[in-house]
Amino acid sequence: MEVVHITESNADDFSAYIDEDMLDNLGRTFFRAIGALDDDGSPVGAMVFELKDSESEDDTKSRIRAMKVENDDVRDIIMSEYKSMVNEEEVVESFYEMPDEVASHRLEGSGFSLEVSEGLDLVLSMDDVKKVADSIRLSKFPPYITSLSGVTVMQYRSFIKNCLFKGRYGLLEDLAYLPKNWFEQEVSACALTDEDVCGMLLLKKAPSGMLFALLYTAFGPDYQKNLGLLMAYAAKKVVELYPEGTHLVIRRHNEMVKKLTDRFFSNCRGEQVYNGKREEV
Predict the structure, then answer these.
(1) Among the four given CATH numbers 3.10.20.30, 1.10.340.30, 3.40.630.30, 3.40.50.620, the one describing domain 2-118+273-279
(2) Beta bridge partners of 251
(3) CATH topology of domain 122-251
(4) H-type helices in 50-191, by residue range?
(5) Same fold, 2-118+273-279 and 122-251
């Protein structure tokens, strides 16, 4: 058996083990992937992980995003390579959160803890989003709420620089490297004050067609009001521009986002997930 690093050039070989949305991340700065080949050179397993806090003074962690292997022997060879890679990156802790019970038990066999809980991700149907869009009483949004297409690259970069300075990365460790056109231009929402962007809800469409909210934050004295307007604007645009069957995923990664999703999507819950962690030093 042979271990290989999965990159954009060989990602399709492992599509039976890692879904297209996760494979789409492999060109990004902090994502890594490992695959295993049997003696005939056929794929028999793969995993994807993401380095977290890698450019801060805090301890670097690794989040295992996906794993699927044929058996424990494949797991062991992949996890051996994983250990070498995270040691090289000076990772102090690995963790995971996934709905895949089989993968979680594979990781438990590699020294990870295992718990069951409600996931942080809200996977919202178009009906869920429509309920929010229909509840908006505004006949039109104020002129300082606009789509991402309505701001310049300079305005976008200035806001991202402010986010980085304040340590607000959302779900994007590589926020500093992502151009404006990487995000969905018409459904991503922006708030402005005197021509400066003071809030954003940035969405990205994955290959599967799912929409992911990746940055949701605002600054200034009206930040709470603007956060509500950004969500309302994005909800209306999603309903207007995307087909039935589209799902919007919002990860409740901090208390502010959780409060807002509780307000807008009070009847929605995250699915059951398995999570755990392992110290690496």
Answers:
(1) 3.40.630.30
(2) 121
(3) Aminopeptidase (3.40.630)
(4) 72-88, 101-108, 126-135, 153-166
(5) yes
Tell me the chain's radius of gyration from C-alpha atoms.
20
Domain boundaries, the chain: 2-118+273-279, 122-251
In this structure, what token pair is assigned to residue 8?
């954009």
Of 53, 60, 57, 50, nearest in space to 91 by CA: 60
**How far lies 117's CA from each of 72, 97, 121, 269, 280, in Å?**
25, 9, 12, 11, 23
Q: Is the pTM of this model over 0.85?
A: yes
Whether pLDDT at 216 is above 70: yes
Task: Tell me the CA end-to-end span of the chain in Å, nearest whole number.
Answer: 27
Q: Which amino acid is at 27?
A: G
Tokens 């999507």 locate to 265
Q: What are the pLDDT digits (tens) for 56-88?
A: 556 899 999 999 999 999 999 999 999 999 999
- The pLDDT value recorded for residue 57 is 59
